[in-house]
Amino acid sequence: MALFGVYLLTLFSLLLIALFPSLCFAADPSVFYDLRLSYITASPLGVPQQVIAVNGKFPGPLINSTTNDNVNVNVHNDLDENLLMTWSGIQMRRDSWQDGVLGTNCPIQPKRNWTYQFQMKDQIGSFFYFPSLNFQRASGGFGPIIINNRVIIAIPFAQPDGDITITIGDWYIQNHTALRSALDAGKSLGMPDGVLINGKGPYRYNNTLVRDGIDYETIQVDPGKTYRIRVHNVGISTSLNFRIQNHFLLLAETEGYYTAQQNFTSLDIHVGQSYSFLVTMDQNASSDYYIVASARFVNESLWQRVTGVAVLHYSNSKGSATGPLPDPPNDVYDKSWSMNQALSIRQNVSASGARPNPQGSFHYGQINVTQTYVIKTVPPEIINGTLRTTLNGISFVNPDTPIRLADKYKVTGAYKLDFPDQPLNRTPRVDRSVINATYKGFIEIIFQNNDTVMQSFHVDGYSFFMVGMGTDEWTVDSRSRYNKWDAISRSTTQVFPGGWTAVLISLDNVGVWNIRTENLDRWYLGQETYMKIINPQENGATEMGLPDNVLYCGALQYLAKDQNNSAGSVLRGNSNLLFILLVAFFALINISS
């Protein structure tokens, strides 16, 4: 009888492991957040307008986590249109089901909610979240993400005295639906109405340029202390130069990787990029100091009002900030200063990141490239009577059924695995072409920007090595200029107009991953694709399965269940099953004894 009880207990244990694989990772803590997106009225530039708040806040609250945390984010859609949240720079290892873009997820319908469940696997650093659909980021919905080092991994600088998050971005008084309508009508968005810092308009440094009554951001600091200041460009399409009057910015990290530390008086931060600086409050407190984010590569005499200004306030300050703003770089028509600055940002190869081994231990410069893609952009053009943007002549339209969901249920015709590896001499088209990438391959992607504007490009699911950039047309000879030792790893890179940026990616993260421009107008009009990476010997070990609370749409709409209270349905279902199993467990103990 005792032997029979042991046999039953063994079966019970195996059943528990099968039903609750997350129990195997109990050593990794879980964190829980509720994000409720809704419309509120705010006046960031002094004019009442509709913005998208998160939990009633604009910008949204911080998601604070630690390496390897299991993160559960219950997103409530109180908007009047579909919603998805994406987590810029979070790699979602083996789990593109949680990525929050239309190629991977069905949308969260109005008045419904859905819980994202993902792990901050082997990551540290500064990131942000935002709504990925319908141009919604132009109205807000964004907020910061911090992934802290585990206590066993030392950071490569003294522990700062405080941590400060700053979001910057260009802003329009029109909301996202009006801006979207303008793009649908074939119009340009024109010059933004201003730049926001932490969701607030500019300090009135100039009575002519800045209207009275605008609420501005004040950052409170203590003299002599050093702060880690994390800055995110969450804007629409404008590159911004960030600077703090009379203070050095010691660059420490960008998008999850520690950098070789160097001081800047200002830094160009492009759309979608994130940086963190160490800033020591070493100035006298005779007055407050300006924090500035001003538009780059524009006619500054016309764009003067497109400048964000906040105040750095010492606790012993004796007066307000006065006088002119600190000077911006004076190179409107010469991109060399900005490009040289970008190329000077190198990886700290001796520092540990999320793991104990040094960041430079992966010798990417010694790996043979297995695939090369030259992805070319051009100015918007008319396709089938509509203004569109393209990558390699293809303007992407998202599939009705997300790509991996279509694969799992054998939905045919949802997309095509035929994205060209170089620009083709053919008529531009609207299509659903996806890159067929090779698992464990080492891919080289060249973003060739033949558009007239500065662009940022982002790759979901990965950090890439930004090995080179230039102001000309890329050729194979351009590889001689690549940095093959300490190129910075990041997930968003700038590409200068008329120029190129080359990145290298080790394809070890299976799934379907979005490649897009971060310029919202270009993205909305079709400048994106996906990279599909599947292990041909897939046995369940390299890719997560369908989440229990998966949403269905498109060709699989018939599988959709009532999504009311969906956030807790999986946990409640598992809790009930666990209760039943526990009852069975104690019964087995009685039998075996």
From TrEMBL:
One Pfam family in the UniProt entry: Cu-oxidase_3
GO molecular function, one term: oxidoreductase activity
Subcellular compartments: Cell membrane
Domain Plastocyanin-like: 38-150, 163-317, 401-537
Bilayer topology annotation: Lipid-anchor; GPI-anchor
Signal peptide bounds: 1-26
Main subcellular localisation: membrane
GO cellular component: plasma membrane; side of membrane
Highest taxon listed in the record's lineage: Eukaryota
Cofactor: Cu cation
Keywords of the record: Cell membrane, Copper, Glycoprotein, GPI-anchor, Lipoprotein, Membrane, Metal-binding, Signal
Protein family according to the UniProt entry: Belongs to the multicopper oxidase family.
PANTHER family noted in UniProt: MONOCOPPER OXIDASE-LIKE PROTEIN SKS1, MULTI-COPPER OXIDASE
Protein name, as recorded: Monocopper oxidase-like protein SKS1
Organism: Castanea mollissima (Chinese chestnut)
